[in-house]
Amino acid sequence: MECCKRTPKKTMNNVDDLSLLFDELADLSILQRQSLKERYRFLLSEYSRRCALYAILFYVLRITMTVGSLAVPALLTIQNSPGAPTYAYWVTWGISLAVTTSNGIMTLFKLDKRFFMLHATMERLRSETWQYIQLAGRYSGVHHHNHTPTHANQFVFYCSQLEKINMKRVDEEYIKVADESNHGSKTQAAAAAAAGGRPDVLVPSPPEQPAKTPESRDSISIVEDEDDSSKKDQVVSIDMPLFRSQEPSVSKQSNRGIPVLRTPPESL
Question: Which of 21, 25, 30, 129 is the most buried (most CB within 10 A)?
Fold first, then answer.
């Protein structure tokens, strides 16, 4: 009985090296398979290299900040105790300087944000590629309702999605950071211009003057009308022509303060 001879199957040396799987997509043309392999290989190699670099920097600086912030108070306690060695001062100073420098580098280059963003983008590229190879998810016939999904008719949508993921990372890493810095500089320039070229001088706002409302104007006009009417009444009451020959005498005053004239009785 002859043993059937089997040809050894090729295996992928790297989980991200999908060249063998791309070669099995027979419904794609040679140009499409070649462009797919080159673009995917370039993006994954670039993201893998940057992820490794940012991972080393992120973990080294974060561990330095965490351990150093805990060690400095303990070293200060030992340093202040009697009989402490002289090198304790320099060790404490060196650790505190390392913690401050690590925090400054982390904040300046935004390593934590880039670390998470690059790893998330790389995982998104992997997931999108595996969905395309397996014709799952968005490549299961969503774009062609009346046709059976194949790698050939889903190729354009996969390439478009691949570039969208990459450009989204570019926008978040460069364009948004530049917009935030420009916005901050414009805000400082506006404040300096408002202060007359001196950003440390605060320009006070003009005091608010109460506007005359229609009710206040009406009340003022009413008071003026009342004053005018009272004056007119006084003038009329005083300058009233008298047809009597005798002098009038004032007997009483009204509630409004206007004298009332009364004529004496006629003599018989």
Answer: 129
Q: How many domains does the chain have?
A: 1
CA distance 25 to 184: 51
Do 66 and 126 contact (CB within 8 A), yes or no? Answer: no
Residues 6 or more apart whose CB falls under 8 angstroms from that of 191 comprise 199
Which structural domain range is residue 151 located in?
A: 19-194
Backbone angles phi, psi at 42, to 5 degrees: -65, -45
User: What gap in Å lies between CA 107 and CA 114, rounded to an integer?
Assistant: 11
Residue 58 falls inside a structural domain: yes
Note whether residue 249 is domain-resident.
no
For 62-97, the pLDDT digits (tens) are: 999 999 999 999 888 887 778 778 888 889 999 999
Helix (H, G, I), strand (E, B), or coil: what is residue 140?
coil
Q: Which of the 8 DSSP states describes residue 175?
A: I
